[in-house]
Amino acid sequence: MQNQAENQNTPTVRPAMLGSRRAATNTAFRKKLEQMAIPLAPLVQLTTGEVHPSFPGTVLNFWLLTDEELEALAHFYHQRTPSQYKFHYPCPINWSSDIPLEEKRRKIGRFIGLRGCESPIRIRTEEEILEDARRARIAEEDEMWKRKLRWY
User: Fold this and answer.
1) How far apart are CA 42 and CA 71, in angstroms?
2) Whole-angstrom distance, CA of residue 56 vs CA of residue 38
3) Which residues contact 42 (CB under 8 A, 6 or more apart)?
4) Per-residue model confidence as pLDDT tens digits over 23-80
5) Which of 57, 119, 42, 47 shows the shortest CA–CA distance to 78?
6) Could you tell me which residues are beta bridge partners of residue 39?
7) Which residues in 77-106 are b (16+ Cβ under 10 Å) and which e?
8) What is the pLDDT of residue 12?
9) Distance from C-alpha of 152 to C-alpha of 147, rounded to nearest angstrom
């Protein structure tokens, strides 16, 4: 009993949190933590003026949204089911429940105004570019022969 009282009176020294220690030595990690802590302005529903309970308060919370939460957000803000209110939001999206989680997250991110959540631009490989050039060259040659031999 006396031992417990002594333990309560002595200040406990807790080790610094892992994030604090890493952030102190790694500037890139510190910047990433600061980015993840950026607060997000809530989006209100047009009909009620309420904010969905799962709406992410920070960028980190956005990246932690589950598939079910993304579905619920899309439904709450009239994006999942056809509604007269769908196109009254600043950036309406085409929603489908059968798309992958990352695609859903990207669409909701675009819907709530996060930068970097636009549709990905597909970069073609060198082989695809060469194949397209080959097809165009063959089409040009075919057209040339059609013009030359059209009277025969």
Assistant:
1) 17
2) 11
3) 51, 55, 57
4) 668 888 889 989 999 999 999 999 999 999 999 999 999 999 999 999 999 999 999 9
5) 47
6) 58
7) bbbbeeeeebeebeeebebeeeeeeeebbb
8) 55
9) 10
Tally the C-alpha atoms within 13 A of residue 97's C-alpha that lie toward its C-beta.
8
Place of tokens 């929603």: 95
Helix (H) or strand (E) holding 27: helix 27-36
Cα(108)–Cα(125) distance, rounded to whole angstroms? 29
Residue 55 neighbours by CB under 8 Å, 6+ apart: 40, 42, 43, 73, 112
7: its two tokens: 């333990």
One-letter identity of residue 68: E
For 110, the token pair is 């675009």
- State the pLDDT at residue 152: 63
